[in-house]
Amino acid sequence: MKQCIFLVISSYLLVFFTACNDTPSTVTANALQAVSVPTKPFTGLFYYDKEVTRFVDCTDGLSYAVMDSTSKLKQFYADATQMMPCQGEPVWGAVQGRMDANTSQFTVLKIDSIAALNKLNACIPFDYWCSGTEPFWSLSISKAGKAAYFKDVSTEKGYSFNYSEPVQQNGGLLYTLVNTANTKEQMVLLIKKEDCSDGMSDISYKYSASIQFNGKKWKGCAEKWGEVHTE
Fold it and tell me: Per-residue pLDDT for 11 more than 60?
């Protein structure tokens, strides 16, 4: 009987110590795996709309859900777009972070710089970047970004539009764009391949741009992706 009891106790202790030894090794392995994910610099576009943040990496164009460990990204975004915010517009960012390809999640650990989107830092292709003076305005339209953003400096208002394919009409490319905030409102944008001057510099642009929206008209020049002036 004593021998049987000894064997039972021995078996129980063996199972107990085996379980105890297995648990730390598993935790350690997981911890080492998490630590091994590298932290490095990234540049890309941050989209913040209705409490949802995503990051589009400039190097490969892939989109990731964002976890902001700094708790400052929302404020940086607001500061960059505060003059004439457009619903859902992206901002350019240079940050330090960690990418998890398995969960498509990007963790922001440090913010180096956040800036409003412009024709020089827009790493996602756009169709045209348009602008004009008297009054000042700008418009970017991107098939890749599935949107267009219009800023009217004279009224300090910004508008977002859903992207739609242009048609050949009136001697150029005609876009009919629907306002995302009010689907009853449409903008008509006409791009023509012709010499154009902005009236404020010696730069000669290859395209003209004209806009009709909310009963008003704007005229200016346009630059195509890959043909942007850097002066």
Answer: no
